[in-house]
Design a protein that fits this description.
Elements: E1 5-6, E2 19-20, E3 23-24, E4 29-34, H1 36-39, E5 43-47, E6 55-57, E7 78-85, H2 86-89, E8 103-108, E9 113-114, H3 116-123, E10 129-134, E11 137-138, H4 145-152, E12 156-159, E13 171-178, E14 186-195
Parallel strand pairs: 7-8, 8-10, 9-11, 10-12
Antiparallel strand pairs: 1-14, 2-3, 4-5, 6-12, 6-14, 7-13, 13-14
């Protein structure tokens, strides 16, 4: 059996926090709350945004009336994946074949402009969750167009994963588990993959 590859970014002082055009996500704060010497146990306080580090976006993150994170059942967070390379999305006639995997693993580390018809064809596939390594650059004026289309299609998107992980297998097992939050647009997540047998 192959080893699990952890795609999750560390939540530490080196973590990049999204900011653009005068907006910034909440900063990550990790500080000691209780010490064993005084309280008899140790507790840490966390403050962070729902899209901090490696995370899963619920459709409501970008789509009006979109589903919140709690509509994603636990069973949809564990399964098998099929790999799609970003280079395939550069072809507007790309029509992916599907063999029944529960997740789509999108390797977008190489710089390609994704054709909008190829993205739409990808989003028409059954998997409810897309796990993205790297970042899709759509052939569209709106840099967030890909994220908006994913949300409009009712899909959940796991992103901001580690990128320095070597080559990914074409199929395998996948785990992408968010925190069990209700009514929110997303959650930090632990994301792991391993090559199929």
């Amino acid at each position: 059996m192959s080893e699990w590859i952890d795609l999750t970014r560390k939540l530490d002082d080196d973590l990049w926090i999204y900011q653009e055009d005068g907006y910034a996500d909440p900063p990550l704060v990790v500080e000691r709350w209780a010490e064993r010497g005084r309280a008899g146990f140790e507790v840490w306080r966390l403050a962070l945004g729902t899209q901090t580090g490696t995370h899963i976006d619920a459709p409501c993150h970008f789509a009006d009336g979109g589903a919140t994170l709690d509509t994603l059942p636990a069973a949809a967070c564990v399964g098998t994946y099929r790999l799609v390379m970003a280079g395939h999305l550069a072809d507007p006639d790309f029509r992916p074949e599907w063999a029944g995997e529960s997740h789509l693993l999108l390797d977008a580390r190489a710089p390609h402009r994704a054709a909008t018809p190829a993205i739409d064809a990808l989003l028409a596939l059954p998997p409810r969750m897309i796990v993205m390594v790297g970042c899709v650059t759509p052939a569209h004026d709106d840099p967030l167009w890909f994220h908006r289309r994913v949300a409009q299609a009712g899909k959940f998107l796991a992103e901001d994963t580690l990128e320095d992980i070597g080559e990914l297998a074409s199929t395998g097992d996948i785990i992408a588990l968010p925190l069990r939050l209700t009514g929110v647009s997303g959650s930090p997540a632990r994301v792991l993959v391993r090559a199929g047998a």
